[in-house]
Description:
Elements: H1 10-27, E1 31-38, E2 41-49, E3 62-63, H2 68-81, H3 105-109, H4 135-139, H5 156-170, H6 174-186, E4 203-205, E5 212-214, H7 224-227, E6 230-231, H8 233-245, H9 253-259, E7 273-275, E8 280-284, E9 287-296, E10 299-306, E11 311-317, H10 325-339, H11 355-358, E12 362-366, E13 369-375, E14 381-385, E15 393-397, E16 403-405, E17 414-419, E18 425-430, E19 433-436
Antiparallel strand pairs: 1-2, 1-11, 3-6, 4-5, 7-8, 8-9, 9-10, 10-11, 12-13, 12-19, 13-14, 14-15, 15-16, 16-17, 17-18, 18-19
Helix pairs in contact: 1-10, 2-5, 2-6
Amino acid sequence: MTFSSEQLLPGTQRALLHCIATAQSEGRAPSLVAAVQRQGRTVWSGSRSCVDGHAPDNDTQFRIGSLTKTFTAVLVLRLRDEGLLDLDDPLEKHLPGTDVGDVTIHQLLGHSAGLGAEAPGPWWERTPGTLRPELADVLGEETRMYSPGHRHHYSNPGYTLLGALVEKVRGASWAEVLRREILEPLGMNRTSLHPQAPHAGGWAVHPWADVMLPEPAEDLGLMAPAGQLWSTIDDLLRFATLLAEGDDRVLCADSVEQMREPSAPAEHGDWHFAYGLGLQVAHIGGRTLIGHTGSLPGFLAALWISVEDDVAAVALTNTTSGLMIGGLAADLVNIVAESEPRIPEPWRPLPEVDAELLALTGPWYWGTRPNVLRMASGGGLELAPLQGAGRGARFTAQPDGTWIGLDGYYAGETLRVVRNSDGSVNHLDLGSFVFTREPYDPAAAVPGGVDEGGWRGLGA
Length: 460
């Protein structure tokens, strides 16, 4: 039996509509538009408005604020993948003269460079970027809040520096590089530096009365890489597919996966949220969501993806505050993932058998702890405890016959197959730990040796 994912069940659709209708009403938002994507296809969208007949659609632009940072991070990762820089490089190596040149590119991407959260001077989100014509005007005199690398401290000026880094290395403006390297390849024709009709206007809603005030929409100048962009539901869902799967035209799957890994300890007491490289990582409702939220005066935006469920949601609104946009987008993901769980792909055998690799599979013992080694799809290996939680990892083959851990406790560690003189396997060496075919196998090179008396009962 086959299954079509193009339509959601009526009950799920109504739950999604109820969710955004409640958010717009209780959050007193002038307008709101949202959509859900599953398996790369938009399966639901909906909108609400305070003006009958003027609800936005999937092609209406809203300002997306700090979601812009994820685009900037993708551009930086592209430079790394091309060998033009290393994430551990100090900023000074590629962008000299900033007075914070000792911080690394990795620290800037993950907001652990210790820089201030905001630019000095008047509120940068509501004033023209011409008030901050140089990087020194964005950083100010008191640039350091904390020592680099010690903690997560969100920094908008940090992403201004990353935008300047992109410009320096590419020899073109951040906006031009963005258009050429992300927007055009992904077909994001409705994402732009400045609003293009049809677009929403930004509003502030009075906290104690049902009245509104228009918000200015300033060009942020050098701060653009931190929050300038305008986009639509449809374009952001295209971007979500990149963040979930990778796309060799823009950024490969391995680099996208690296963006999703937490890069620094979470804020004190905030154990449900972390930050990767230009991506927020949240644990909400028993799910791990990756994406980003954004806000600028007059606008709120959120994009969340559950990679495991293959569900993404985007929500955009034109109000300064009052609506928890990140929670709304997360709720949309959870409604679909829980109401209509992902249908697994059919199991299929491998196209061919690697007999030598197959011989390594099965139970292995670290001391007396049973583990199992399995062949993974794509030619890798997976090591996991036979029962319960514990140390494990996926491994990928290296040219010299060893294996490197990709995740978990053994991430980056080397797995070696140690053989006897006749070619038979003696044991597995994993970061100095010895795994044997039997618990403390006396025929294997167990550190410390194995008692010659062997296993015994209480009365022995």
